[in-house]
Amino acid sequence: MHSEPTIGLALGSGGVRGFAHLGVLEVLEREGLTPDFIAGSSVGAAIGAMYAFRPKLVPNLTHVQNYLNSDLYDNTKLGYLKQSEESRNTIYDKLRVRLAKGAVLATSMARESLFDKQTLHGNVAFLVPPVNIEDAMIPLAVVCFDLDTGEEIVLEQGPLIEAVMASCAIPGVFPAVEQGGRQLMDGGVVNPVPCDRVRAMGADIVIGVDVTPQLPPLQVLNGSYEVAMRAADISKHRLKSLKLRAADLVIQVDTSEVFWGDFTRFDECVDKGREAAERALPEIKQLVAVGT
């Protein structure tokens, strides 16, 4: 009799949309399909880190809810990133629209980032414990990139909080995180759904969880800036498609109506993740059965 195949879960970037990862984990856990390896980029690294050190969905779900109800979250004013209803373009375009409103434009453009390092540290430290990555109950890889060289960096050892900070450091929103002489930032820039990384960890079956919307149909573009942003959006989607090729199965979560910075959509995102995992469940079980 063959042993059951190991399952690797690649949790993608996507801001608030990444709360959908919790819904996916809930379904997998219920079905006895808890992952043997986890790799994550950006919010996927944060959710993956929480679960890797406490592989039970309910306490992690409660922990995130407590965070969103905390004074820390309120004082950070992350709600500032919430989408205006009329803006539904790329992450960086939405950020530009937000910054362009009021006096914040002049001050923010002179700074490295919208929020400082202490703010990033405080929020990440609320979510993940002060431990080392290698001590996780489920082997974990945290993806980020070197701002100087552009190199993809995969952290599998060292302080967890700093690693997750680096992976979540969205350019322009949070500052780079210095580690070992390198300036590390958002893993989603170089590997939005790190299926190849979880495969390299030894997973027999790789499941990628993509929480970012598909490329929207082309609309009328007003000016050179919007043309450039459309081209950047295409580049990101092409990169994501290449990274997803390393997956045996992709759980595609429909978050097209959710802005990446709208933290009021937590419950909706979890529900969307749960629904997407339910739809994928027959195929996941088939993959496991064939690999057994």
Per-chain topology:
Layout: E1 7-11, H1 20-30, E2 37-41, H2 43-53, H3 57-68, H4 71-76, H5 91-99, H6 104-109, H7 117-127, E3 140-146, E4 152-155, H8 160-168, E5 177-179, E6 182-186, H9 195-200, E7 205-210, H10 224-244, E8 249-252, H11 266-291
Parallel strand pairs: 1-2, 1-7, 2-3, 7-8
Antiparallel strand pairs: 3-4, 3-6, 5-6
Helix pairs in contact: 1-3, 1-11, 2-8, 7-8
Jot down its keywords.
292 residues, alpha/beta, eight-stranded mixed sheet, globular
- What is the tally of helical segments? 11
- Helix fraction by DSSP (H/I, runs of at least 4): 40-55%
The rounded distance between the terminal residues' Cα atoms is: 8 Å
The class by helix and strand makeup works out as alpha/beta
Radius of gyration: 18 Å
Global mean pLDDT: 87
SS elements, strand count = 8
Are there runs of 5+ residues with pLDDT below 50, and where? 83-89, 100-109
Strand content: 5-15%
Sheet with most strands: 8 strands, mixed
Write down the overall geometry: globular
| SSE string | EHEHHHHHHEEHEEHEHEH
Q: What's a quick, concise take on this entry?
A:
The protein is of the alpha/beta class and 292 residues long. The protein is built from 11 helices and 8 strands.
What would you note in describing this structure?
With 292 residues, this protein is α/β, with parallel strands linked by helices. Helices cover 44% and strands 13% of the residues. The protein contains 11 helices and 8 strands. It has helices at 20-30, 43-53, 57-68, 71-76, 91-99, 104-109, 117-127, 160-168, 195-200, 224-244, 266-291; strands spanning 7-11, 37-41, 140-146, 152-155, 177-179, 182-186, 205-210, 249-252. Strands 1, 2, 3, 4, 5, 6, 7 and 8 form an 8-stranded mixed beta sheet that branches. α2 packs antiparallel against α8. The longest helix has 26 residues, at 266-291. It is globular. The model is unreliable at 83-89 and 100-109 (pLDDT under 50).
